[in-house]
């Protein structure tokens, strides 16, 4: 079901963005544009987000600044196979030098 008719954003898409870490209507807007035109869907988006497990919101609820709260790192260590694939795609130093010359 559509939540944002201006951009054709569904409730499922909002939930996917929320599962990926968006926990405010503004973050949903950054990810999907939902709520950035007429704005009539913002309350609905807020309702979908609810009062879930948002680290920044939890910090606010504790009276802490969300900007100084340590956020979980989203960086992941690549698997050895991914490292090998990246190395295979990178040009060899001699080939890179020929391209630059
Ligand atoms: S319905 Fe979402 S911005 Fe208009």
From TrEMBL:
A UniProt-annotated Pfam family: Fer2_BFD
Coiled-coil annotated spans: none
Superkingdom of this protein's organism: Bacteria
Entry keywords, A to Z: 2Fe-2S, Electron transport, Iron, Iron-sulfur, Metal-binding, Transport
InterPro entries reported for this sequence: BFD-associated_ferredoxin, BFD-like_2Fe2S-bd_dom, BFD-like_2Fe2S-bd_dom_sf
Species of the source: Streptomyces smyrnaeus
Positions of region (Disordered): 56-79
Similarity section: Belongs to the Bfd family.
Protein name: Bacterioferritin-associated ferredoxin
Domain BFD-like [2Fe-2S]-binding span(s) in chain numbering: 2-50
Biased composition (Low complexity): 68-79
